[in-house]
Design a protein that fits this description.
This protein has 149 residues and is of the alpha/beta class. It has a single domain (5-147), classed as Nucleoside Triphosphate Pyrophosphohydrolase, CATH 3.90.79. Helix content is 17%, strand content 39%. It contains three helices and eight strands. It has helices spanning 50-62, 112-116, 140-147; strands at residues 5-15, 20-26, 36-38, 41-43, 72-82, 85-97, 117-124, 135-136. The strands form two sheets. Strands 4-1-6-5 form a four-stranded mixed sheet, with helices on both faces.
């Protein structure tokens, strides 16, 4: 495998009134055993700032329109392999409070991106440590706890 692609990305912890966080069930369609539960988000486009990328990705992956995001809850660096490429990714994670459950993806690109999305679930924040979900980022329960979610 070649050198890791460095990438800036963003994620959004969408939390509803019942203290549940929206997680997307995803995988690398080309490799078995890669299923994870992750926050909506993705890579920034050229010249895009994290808050704008977060709003764009949120809409594409969930259909949620956010005029303003809540506070940033963390920045994490992750290494991973996807579609045969290695990545070193720095993710800025924002929060967003919503009154009710929403989810209607509008902009998943045909092909790999669409195949990578297996579904979604609103998971009670208190259950993140006890359920056997493979979380991405793995420190998500700690980030949400420090944020006060």
């Amino acid at each position: 495998m070649t050198e890791a692609v460095r990438r800036e990305s963003t994620r959004i912890a969408v939390i509803d009134a019942e203290r549940r966080v929206l997680l997307l069930h995803t995988c690398d369609p080309g490799r078995s055993g890669t299923e994870v539960w992750e926050l909506p988000g993705g890579g920034l486009e050229a010249g895009e700032v994290p808050v704008d990328g977060a709003r764009r990705e949120l809409y594409e992956e969930t259909g949620i329109v956010a005029a303003e995001l809540g506070p940033r809850i963390g920045v994490v660096e992750m290494d991973f392999v996807f579609a045969g490429r290695r990545y070193r990714q720095r993710e800025t994670i924002f929060s967003l409070r919503v009154e009710q459950e929403e989810y209607a993806p509008t902009g998943l690109a045909p092909g790999t991106e669409r195949l990578a999305h297996l579904g979604h679930e609103w998971v009670p924040i208190d259950d993140l440590r006890t359920r056997r979900l493979r979380l991405y980022p793995p420190q998500l329960p700690d980030l949400l706890a420090r944020f006060g979610a």
